[in-house]
Amino acid sequence: MANIETIADFYKKNIGWTSGRVSQETGHFNVFQSEYSDDNPPNPSAYRRRDFYKITLSFGPSELQFADKIVQVKKQALIFLNPQIPYTADLSQVSSSYCLVFNQSFFHQHGHPGEYPVYQPGGIHAFELTDEQANSARSIFQRMLEEIDADYLYKYDVLRNLVLELIHFALKTQLFAAAHLKPRLNASERIAALFTALLERHYAIDDSAQRIVLRSPADFAHHMNIHVNHLNRALKEVTAKTTSQLIATRCLTEAKTLLKQSTWNVGEIAYALGFLETAHFNAFFKKHMGTTPLGFRNV
C-alpha cells in the first residue's frame, strides 16, 4: 500500500498549502469549493490511508474503491472518509465539489467524530442525494465557507457544530440506498473483483523504469488491507484458482506482451516484472511456456 497521505500532501496535490488555517490550539480544519472542467480535471487519488478526516459533497458520477467493496455514485453524494480506511476515488466525471478536512485535534474535548456510524468500519460512507438533499448539504458547506473567513472569536466552535450537522444530516435522512455495489456481489465476489482490478492496474507496464512490487498473495492482501487467508479463500471460491496462480498468469501475460511488443531486453523485462535476477525470470517463463523468453520472442 502507498504511504499514508498527510494533510500537507493533500494540499500540495490539490490546492496548495494554506498555513493561515492551521492552529496548534484548535487543531486543523479547512473547507473549500472546487469547479472542474476538461482543462482542470480532478486530481486522481492513490489507494492509501490518510491521516485526516474528510467530508466531500460531489456533483457528478463517481466511484470509490475500498478493500471489500466498490461504491458507485450516479449523480451526487455526501461522502465520509476517515484515517482508518484506505480508499481510492475515480472523480473524473465530477463537475464540482465541496470538501472539508480536519484532524482529531480539531475536536479535542469536543467529542470524537470517529464514533459515529459514518466513520465506522463496515458502515455506510457514501450517501446518494436527491436534488433537495444536495441543496441542503450545499447550504451547510456554504455556511462553513462564510464562517471560516469571518473574524468571529468563536468561529471554530461554529465550524465544529456544522461538521456535526453534516454527520447528523446523513444519519437522520437514512440514505442507506446510496451505496451501490458494482455489481451486487457477495463478499468473496467483491474481493475477487477488487483483486482483479488491482492486478490489472499493477501489471499495466509502459516504462522500463517501472517495477512490479506486489509479487505475492501476502503483498496483494496487505495492499487491500485484508488478511491473506481471507484473500486466498475468496479467490479460490470465485475462480477455483489460487492467488499465486492468478498472479503468475497475469505476470506471464505481461511478459509475453513485452517480449513481442517492446524493444526492451530480457533483463529489462525481468526487472520491470519484479524479478531479482534475470535467471529467475527465465526459469519462470520456461516453466510455464516450455521455452525461454528469447525463444518466444524469436518465434
Please describe the structure with a list of short key phrases separated by commas or semicolons.
299 residues; alpha+beta; Jelly Rolls; Arc Repressor Mutant, subunit A; 2 domains; 6-stranded antiparallel sheet; 4-stranded antiparallel sheet; 10 helices; DNA-binding transcription factor activity; transcription
- Domains counted in the coordinates: how many? 2
End-to-end separation in angstroms reads 38 Å
Name the CATH class of the largest domain.
Answer: Mainly Beta
- The overall strand count is 10
Low-confidence blocks of residues: 175-183
- Cα shape: elongated
In the CATH hierarchy, the architecture of the largest domain is Sandwich
Order of helices and strands: HEEEEEEEEEHHEHHHHHHH
CATH homologous superfamily identity of the largest domain: Regulatory protein AraC
Strand order of the largest sheet: 1-2-8-3-6-9
GO molecular function, one term: DNA-binding transcription factor activity
Domain HTH araC/xylS-type: 189-299
InterPro entries: Homeodomain-like_sf, HTH_AraC
Protein name: AraC-like DNA-binding protein
